[in-house]
Every structure is written in C-alpha cells, then in structure tokens.
Specification:
Helix 1 packs antiparallel against helix 4 (about 175-185). A hairpin with a 5-residue loop joins strand 4 and strand 5 (about 105-115). The radius of gyration is 18 Å and the shape is globular. It is built from five helices and ten strands, in the order E-H-H-E-E-E-E-H-E-H-H-E-E-E-E. It has helices spanning about 25-45, 50, 130, 175-185, 190-195, and strands at about 5-10, 55-65, 75-85, 90-100, 105-115, 155-160, 195-205, 210-220, 225-230, 235-245. By secondary structure, it is of the alpha+beta class. The protein is about 15% helix and about 40% strand.
Length: about 250
C-alpha cells in the first residue's frame, strides 16, 4: 500500500487551550504538534499503536518551534507534517502551521527514535521498511533543535513530586507536562509582556510516579532557559526566545 508522505490535519483552539493572556498556551501548541505526528505515523502503519504490538515505542528527543503568531481562540488551524530524513537512530519530522486563510503561523522540526519498551535501547530505523518508504525528503527553513546548556546560576529553583496527572500511557511523565512545569516557574511578568518567538526542548531521560524532581529557570532580556533534574541527572531542558508583544 502506498504511503501518504505529507499529512495535513485540522485542529481547533478550545478554551482549555487558552492561557491567562487569551492566547494559545505553549503546552497546548506542542500537544497539537505531537498529536499530528502521532496521527500521521498511525496512518502509515508505524505509529505507537502498531509499535506497541512489537514491544516498541516512539520517543521524542528534541523539538524546535518557530512561531510567527499563535492560533486564535475558538478558531481552526492546520498542521502539515512530513518526514524529512531518517538514519539508523533518528527520524527528522517537520511541521508547518497555517490558519484558515493559509497564512503561515509557524514551523517546527523534531527528532525521534524508536526504542524497545523493556530494554529502553534504540533500534535501527533503517531496518523499518514501512518508515523508510514514508520519507518525503523536503527540508524546512525552521532551525534544527540544538543542545541546550543551562547556566550555572539560576533565578528559581523549585521541587516537584511526580503525580498521577503527570503520567502518560507508558507510565512515565508526559512530554507536555515537562513544558507545563517549566512554564509554571517562569516569572508571570515575562509571560504577560512578551510573545514566544521560538522554543527548543531537549528530552534526555524519563521520570516516574513518586519521584522528586527539581525545576530551575534563568531569565534574561531576550530568552529564558529552564530545566528539570532528578538529582544530578538532567531530564529535560527548554529555551524560549522572547519577542516584545505587538
């Protein structure tokens, strides 16, 4: 069966997706992007549903999102997604976000791997013919996600215990929950006065129910950097580039 190389899905911004500034929240935006990736992979028979039957699952390692403007509340927007490239360890999936008039809202570039659920070790993606047949090959002008290094001195340090509502079907913390945690420790004045221009997230390790993690953030004039750590182990980092509200 021929693969669909480029998928476009409609999404709608409901009230639950809107933050205190009456605009789509970053966790809601990332959730929509990841849902588009999941639906596209499922349509081509290499999604989480199919992989779980083999004891495998997808893991997101990095994502970079560049935002021109956020989808308006109670409006429909569209996410187009395709696989740009694939090597033995990493699949690069790109995204384009547009509004109902076709105006470009933003772009994203993400890096994914497939791991064995029991061993947590990656498998060779080049041996997955169903995946290789779906590589579309088109690059994006969105920058590839880069490694984020946290500064030694931070502005905020806060502890959090992983609870039921943080978990996903794999029984570890959902990827968007890390974003919620890190957004929650940013100064509200920064969020109120500025827009997100770009956001890069690095996922390094998993966390589980009952674990205690430490959240940190450092905000400067043009960007904020946040991290989630368990002891000395960095679990997730995020860098937000800000632009003044128009």
């Amino acid at each position: 069966m021929a693969k669909t190389l480029v998928h476009t899905f409609p999404f709608r911004t409901f009230q639950q997706d809107i933050d205190c500034m009456n605009r789509m929240s970053l966790p809601a935006l990332v959730r929509a992007i990841l849902n588009a990736a999941c639906m596209a992979a499922n349509d081509n028979r290499f999604g989480t549903i199919q992989l779980n039957e083999e004891g495998l699952t997808w893991v997101l390692s990095r994502i970079n999102i560049e935002i021109n403007s956020l989808p308006e509340p109670e409006h429909t927007f569209y996410i187009t997604t395709w696989i740009e490239a694939c090597n033995n360890l990493v699949s690069t999936r790109n995204f384009k976000l547009t509004d109902e008039k076709g105006m470009l809202l933003g772009q994203a570039c993400s890096l994914w791997s497939i791991i064995d659920v029991k061993t947590r070790m990656p498998i060779n993606l080049l041996e997955r013919s169903e995946l290789m047949e779906a590589v579309e090959g088109t690059a994006t002008t969105c920058s590839r996600p880069r490694h984020i290094k946290m500064p030694e001195q931070v502005d905020t340090c806060q502890e959090h215990t992983v609870v039921y509502s943080d978990l996903d079907f794999n029984h570890h913390v959902n990827s968007t929950k890390y974003i919620e945690w890190m957004m929650n420790i940013l100064p509200i004045a920064v969020i109120e006065k500025q827009w997100i221009k770009a956001c890069t997230i690095n996922y390094s390790a998993e966390s589980y129910h009952g674990e205690k993690v430490v959240l940190t953030q450092k905000t400067e004039e043009s960007n904020s950097k946040c991290s989630v750590k368990r002891g000395d182990r960095v679990l997730c980092t995020m860098k937000i580039d800000w632009k003044n509200e128009i």
